[in-house]
Amino acid sequence: QFHTRFDEEMQHGTIPDAVRATVANSGPSVLIAMLATSLGFIAMFFAPIPMIADFGVTCVIGVVCCYLSALIIVPVFGIITKYRVKEKKGALDDVEACELDWKGCETEHFHKKGSRGSLTEHYNHALGSIALKIAKNPVPVLLIFGLVALVGFQMDTCVPVNADQDTFVPSDMPALLDMEKVTRTMGSTTSIPVMVTGDDVLSADTLQWIDGFATYELERNDKITGASSIVTLIKQYNNGVIPDTEAGVRDVLSTIPDETKSRYLNGNMEAVILFSTVDMEMDTARSMIENLVKEAAWYPAPPGTTVRVTGSTEMFAALMDDITNSKTTMVIAGFVLILGFLLLVYRKFNAVTPLIPIVMIVGWNGAIMYLLGLDYTPMTATLGSMTIGVASEYTILIMERCEEELARGLGIYEAIQTAVQKIGMAITVSGMTTVFGFSALTLSAFNIISNFGIVTVITVGFSLVGAILVMPAVLAVMYRFSHPHAVNAAEIPAA
């Protein structure tokens, strides 16, 4: 953005003038966009998963450093190198270009016959033409993209959540292959510990409950293949029966080696029931954990005793719930933070304008994830807040430039066309560098990283589409109400 604006200002003045104009005009608008982007990333702080919050911190630090670097380096570099504008030997000189003060309007044609300017000029001119057509016909564009977003929100609810750590690593990883071999040879190594706590877990009532609950689960749950606890050891060392008295229990426990009983017992206040299970998909394990919790509540423990399902299986099942809840929380938090910031900055209703395309982009993300068969993981759960952060920069910059052109007296349509045409290449280059950077992640052998790279590339692509195609339509509709004085001057004169 700074480079594009500096180059634009250099076409009309000296280096000192260009530096002042660039910092004065682009500095505040890019600052607002940067702060909005940071707020989108700050929404990741609301995630219950520490790695997501840490990623948000890293992103905020990165965008702040990029802003400060660009604000300082671009003007300084221009001064040191005595920057000169590249001569445009094939400059466009049609009517639209003249109206936007493009170089070549005041002179005769000097490009070769059939030449219509450089590739950059072609692209900028195409963006301006598209933006003008969209601004004049905003409703169909908003309806089409809005409908796709609405369908995407429905599809998003069908995107599975994946917390299975085995799917996060390469399928040919030696450690994973060894574990699968052990599982095939010895059976499943998965177990679910159930923690039993109370004033005295070695009381006769509690031991009878532990034995009864373990037996109940073995009979009722076909996913459970075995159950072991301190009761199992007591029976083993007491001819298959549980002593009726506390003294009898302690006598039996005294015959059991400490290293053996410590696996199931911690003093006389904590005991563990260890359920062995078949090898299951994480969704199935999650469902089984939920049923186990309900059955533990239905099969009441003695008064003063609490039962809690624990272990890695329960942890990853809880992680799935956290991912499901946090991705929605982060999206809502991102919108609220950015909306509050924009209302504070602009102090008018149309501050909501940059967020409208972003709502659609979030819906498109859900649709593409469903169609590509991707899962939500601890990394891809950040997709919503990343979308809000990245896309808000592009949409805010376009709105800021459009406001600048309106302040110069242009009509609505001409201001929208000028805004997109002037900074379209800049945000495209910015977006494409981000795309190519994250594309490197798609080459990772780790599925969790490669999928994150895929969805990030798609997100940035959608952000560009939202800024270049949807934002002109939104601006055209919003400005009809917020800038009625510009409606009469909206039509660009015909050639």
Element-level helix/strand string: HHHHHHHEHEHHHEEHEHHHHH
Q: Summarize the main sheet.
A: 5 strands, antiparallel
CATH topology of the largest domain: Multidrug efflux transporter AcrB transmembrane fold
Coarse structural class: mainly alpha
Shape: elongated
Second CATH tier, the architecture of the largest domain: Up-down Bundle
Distance between the termini: 31 Å
Count of the domains? 2
Mean pLDDT over the full residue set:
81
- Report the top-level CATH class of the largest domain: Mainly Alpha
Number of helices: 17
The share of residues in helices is 55-70%
Strand content: 5-15%
Q: Could you tell me the number of beta strands?
A: 5
Flag low-confidence runs. 90-115, 490-495
Gyration radius, rounded: 32 Å
3D architecture notes:
The chain is mostly helical. The protein has 2 domains: 2-86 and 118-165 and 317-486, Up-down Bundle (Multidrug efflux transporter AcrB transmembrane fold), CATH 1.20.1640.10; 172-316, no CATH class. The protein has 17 helices and 5 strands. Strands 1, 2, 3, 4 and 5 form a 5-stranded antiparallel beta sheet that branches. α2 (15-42) packs across α13 and α13 (312-346) runs parallel beside α15 (383-407). The longest helix has 36 residues, at 447-482. The two termini are 31 Å apart.
Quick summary:
Keywords: Cell membrane, Membrane, Transmembrane, Transmembrane helix. This protein is mainly alpha-helical and 495 residues long.
